[in-house]
Amino acid sequence: MTGFDLSALLAERGGERYELHARHLNHQLPRMLHTLGFDRVYERAEGAYFWDADGQEYLDMLAGFGVMGLGRHHPVVRQALHDVLDASLADLTRFDCPPLPGLLAEKLLSHAPHLDRVFFGNSGTEAVETALKFARYATGRPRVLYCTHAFHGLTTGALSVNGEDGFRDGFAPLLPDTAVEMGDLAALERELKRGDVAGFVVEPIQGKGVHPTPPGFLRAAQELLHRHKALLIADEVQTGLGRTGDFFAYQHEDGVEPDLVCVAKALSGGYVPVGATLGKDWIFKKVYSSMDRVLVHSASFGSNAQAMAAGLAVLSVMEDEQLVAHARHLGDLLRSRLAALIGDYELLHDVRGRGLMIGIEFGRPTSLGLRGRWTMLQAARKGLFAQMVVVPLLQRHHILTQVSGDHLEVIKLIPPLVITERDVDRFVEAFTAVMDEAHNGGGLMWDFGRTLVKQSLQTGRG
Ligand SMILES: Cc1ncc(COP(=O)(O)O)c(C=O)c1O
User: Fold this and answer.
1) What stretches pass through the bilayer (predicted)?
2) What is the reported pLDDT for 456?
3) pLDDT value at residue 459
4) pLDDT along the chain (462 residues), means of 10
5) Site to substitute for ligand 1 among 122, 125, 164, 414, most atoms within 8 A of C-beta
6) For residue 460, what pLDDT is reported?
7) What CATH architecture applies to the domain 75-320?
8) Per-residue exposure over 176-190, b if at least 16 CB sit within 10 Å of its own CB, e if not
9) How many CB atoms lie within 10 A of CB 422?
10) Cβ(448) to ligand 1 under 6 A?
């Protein structure tokens, strides 16, 4: 091959994908995919679907961990990216003020009218890092509060406000931060009274396990924080941009006006890494308080033209296709149809969430036969039953879902917002078939559970 030819490269070496990962990248990923039988070769994608090498269609209920808010390859976003490349812009000169970041900031802020300014970075975790730094600098205080089980990203600052030991262990020392139970206002106040708290970072719906904040909690927390001169930071990296049926999930509750709001994932339509931290004017004015502090918080790739063009296209599509209302409507439909199954299946305990962010929780069955099997799995590792559901959903029904965090018997659905009622039917039918199998003997399914038990024991030892 002479020169660079992407198509030829993929044609020649695409078949080595799993070996290349095993050899040069995180080797546990191909290992995990082989174990689950998820080691497919996906070749093409559009909207909420992708296709494997045999032409089999899959329904995507994961949206690339939420980045594919509009589904894959939305024609408007794609066109915007072609256009921005074809325009040969003088991007990232770093000593000018290009129009696209200003336009995207203006558009984003129109959805959060109480906020004034935006910092653009390159990921969700960077949006959170920015918020933590800004909160600390603006208040002059070191400590940040967060919720148990929270997830805000995996760089060191964001890791400091991660509520799971599994992510934190071995990476200490982290920042001086303290966890409070979600909904525990007394604990929040106790920490605030110590006078060293810069802010409280919270997901309006916690991604792990899909737990919405209790009604009234965000508003009450905001009042407490402001009384103690600390900031409310809403992490909308997963919940933002319409997913929960409001543009931002904090807007579900009247009177909530976070001081800082973190956005990423779906903002660029899944094409270009992007992150944004929205905030109040006084916070930005403090951080950038003089001309010699102009670069005190900055990022080389921040505000790049591709990310900004994609962001503008995404927000335009969301308006044109009324995707926030669509997410609310289809989310209500999917949730209510799944919730209606609870009485039929003793292993199915709860269906919760808002809009198209839905958690399906499994729990201890009542009948004797099932209880034995359930107990066997629980003794080996919590979360295996949910994995046993995710696997046939993909293998037999060609629907991609995920278990919502380690050691949890919860499946999380975060599909592209563009799914249709037909997709809701398809998911509910497939899920019903898997539940039937789990409850009516389902030898194959429980055999696979035993395989997982063996695997997890081996992993545990290794
Ligand atoms: C609520 C929340 N915050 C932050 C992040 C981190 O985003 P990223 O993976 O882009 O760094 C995530 C990612 O899943 C998230 O769900």
Assistant:
1) none
2) 59
3) 37
4) 89 96 97 92 97 96 98 98 98 96 98 98 98 98 97 97 95 93 97 98 97 98 98 98 98 98 97 97 98 97 98 98 98 98 97 98 93 89 92 96 92 98 98 94 73 59 32
5) 125
6) 35
7) 3-Layer(aba) Sandwich (3.40)
8) ebbbbebbebebbbe
9) 9
10) no
pLDDT of residue 442: 65
Q: Is the CB of 331 under 6 A from ligand 1?
A: no
Pocket lining: 264 vs ligand 1, CB cutoff 6 Å: yes
Q: Quick one: pLDDT at residue 447?
A: 77
Which of 149, 151, 164 to mutate for ligand 1's pocket (most ligand atoms within 8 Å of CB)?
151
Contact 400, 63 (CB under 8 A): no
Phi, psi of 2 (to 5 degrees): -110, 145
- Regarding the beta carbon of 65 and ligand 1, being less than 6 Å apart is answered yes
Q: Which helix (H) or strand (E) holds 273?
A: none
Cβ neighbors of 381 (< 8 A, separation 6 or more) are 407, 452, 453, 456
- Rounded-to-integer distance, Cα 237 and Cα 244, Å: 12
| Confidence at residue 79, expressed as pLDDT on a 0 to 100 scale | 98
Question: Which segments of 143-220 are extended strands (E)?
Answer: 143-147, 177-180, 197-202, 205-206, 211-212
Tell me if 375 sits within 8 A of 424, measured CB to CB: no
- 3-state SS, residue 400: strand
- The reported pTM is 0.96
pLDDT at 405: 85
Is the CB of 385 within 6 Å of ligand 1? no
- 32-61+323-461, what's its fold? Aspartate Aminotransferase, domain 1 (3.90.1150)
The helix or strand, by DSSP H or E, that contains position 411, with its residue range, turns out to be strand 410-413
